[in-house]
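Exercise 7.
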Amino acid sequence: MLKKIFQPLIAWYLGALKTGGFAVIALLMALEGSFLPLPSEFIIPPAAHLAWTAGLNFFQMHFTGWPAEMGVVIAGALGAWIGASAMYWLVRVAGRPLVERYGRLIFFPPEKLEKAERWMSHYGAAGVLVARMLPGARQLVGIPTGIAKFSYLQFSIFTLLGGLIWCSVLCAVGVKFGDDMQHTENAARTIGIWVGGAAVFFGGLYYFFVHRHLQKKA
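Solution. The predicted structure, written as tokens, is:
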């Protein structure tokens, strides 16, 4: 089942990377940085392997090796920042009523909003950095910060920093397991394993450091 799901997506993505290069990474990470359930674990590792072995294009320039790998990290972080900024400004302009009315459509009901607001009021700017590396919170951190009219400069700094750290980790995974990424079938299996492992690991971090804290605050 996992192979049937991932294999055509990986094949399409690798083809898009060869023609679109860093722009494709930034675009997909911008979507991931908003509210769409598009995992960065699917975006960065294959791009890192391709950058390391064959290189990626930026307009008319071709990069390979370390410059291309760094380009993947930067493009991923910038794309995530663009998506998170769009979410931030949408909520900041529209206000809390928009989230209360339509938040359930993106799995963000009012009770989850209240917990997120408590989290941000307690941790402030550091909460943005931590949230950028937690599943579920990473894509939605722009909502409570936008409602609270959190400093956009601080939001941008910590969103970019968190994005750089997260994309660097995923980039290292892509280079480390490059042999598996060479074939679509192996790439599907490897990414599936890492997605599942990352979900368990960061889900545990979320439970012990965020969920329990919010329950106590309640």
